Amino acid sequence: MLQPIDLGLILIAVLVFAAFSRRLEASVITMPMVFVTFGWLIGLSGIELVPMGAEREIIHVIAEVTLALVLFSDASRVNFKFLEQNFTIPIRMLLIGMPLTIGFGTIVAYWVSPDQPWAFALLVAAILTPTDAALGQAVVNNQRVPERLREGINVESGLNDGLALPVVMVAAIAVVQLAGKSIEGAPDNLAMFALMQVVLGPIAGLFVGYVTARLLDVAVSNGFATTAYQGIYFLCAAFLCAVFANMIGGNSLIAAFIGGLVFGATLKCSRQFITEFMESEGQILTMLTFLIFGAVMVPIGLSHATWKTFVLSVAFLTIVRMVPIWISLTGAGLNFEEKAFLGWFGPRGLASILFALLIVENYPVPGADEMLACVVLTVIMSIFAHGISATPLSSRLTKNNSHP
């Protein structure tokens, strides 16, 4: 059980980070780096941050809630007029780059672990393909990066989570069936399940995003809503998208992103409260997620890490991601450095953790510990590699693009 002194240490860490946040934002040190490291030290010290036996379930819930909020928030701030003129970049990355990444990743995963079936390699690739909206904020919120690149990264990370989930589920079921095991609660019709996920998710997001935006406009224009509660309203709207999607059988992550897009495009009143909320209350949830990840998941992942998981992690952060994205952007009017930039900034984080925990909790997949170790190791490397490189590479890109 978490003792008062342990809670005090955590609160002091948050206070110190908040006090030096401006200095840290100007450096290569990011919030996920700080809190994953602090969480890992907490785990080493023996502090029980979450109840024993419920660690994975708690992380699963917190990661899903955090990811839904981040997706809704990022989508609500998308510049629609600009995106209409530059939609080819995220479309290419999603419809060409993502399938190529899963395919290439499957080949690499099978090459590293030929003793595992192809379905297991596909499962690992599908889990590690989605990029992370929370870790991508260091670039998405950097005004020095060209807007078409920022919006491309934002839209890609917002939609690839939900698009990857049906592939993850199909691969997990195939692995279990190949092992001769049964699955409780598995979809009877995988094709229908996948179709419902990618069709009903956007429908839920469209409906909730539009209705909540219109209601808020009415409330603000009539003086019914205070500024302080607009942030709470925004939070509930994000979660309602995810909940409604789950109720009708759609994908909650796609619903959250589409809902955010519609909310931002429909809202007529000032949306300053969105930025203020996400830069204050919203950050607490992200801090908590990475803190618990560092305390609980990092020790588990490192304990099962092998040379195979290390090679796979490095590969998925580099060639497995960068080559397909480069191919998908051929003919998109981007120069060498811009394509390399988009290929590199595909951080792995909450979505991969969420999918891995979903499989571990619900499917008796042989080799689950190795899979979880690979995911954890990839996320750790991504947090530090992408965090350290975000500012200097963004500055370099801006400098080079400023010259004719």
TrEMBL record:
The keyword Methyltransferase does not apply. InterPro entries: Cation/H_exchanger_TM, Na+/solute_symporter_sf. Residues 12-393 form the Cation/H+ exchanger transmembrane domain. Signal peptide: none annotated. Pfam families: Na_H_Exchanger. It is found in: Cell membrane. The keyword Transmembrane applies. It comes from the Bacteria. The chain crosses the membrane at residues 92-112, 118-140, 161-179, 191-211, 232-263, 283-302, 309-329, 341-360, 372-394. It is a multi-pass membrane protein. Keywords: Antiport, Cell membrane, Ion transport, Membrane, Transmembrane, Transmembrane helix, Transport. PANTHER family: CNH1P, NA(+)/H(+) ANTIPORTER 1. This is Sodium:proton antiporter. It comes from Hyphococcus lacteus.
